[in-house]
Request: fold
Amino acid sequence: MLSDWELWACANHVLQTHGDQAPVHVADQIGVLALVGDEAGIRTWQAIAERIVQLSSNASDKPTH
Reply:
């Protein structure tokens, strides 16, 4: 499993790379890992997904000027 810092970095990278499609990318990754039975990989991507949600909600809380 990745460290907490690494999970946050991955979440940020996925958001920067995929934007609004980040949840779709995460779902694709989890689907592929489920097909091969990689439980550790699935847990990692689920942890990344949780952080993406937090980063996204924090971004929407910021005032726009």
Observations:
- The chain has three helices and no strands.
- The chain has a mean pLDDT of 93.
- Residues 4-56 form one domain.
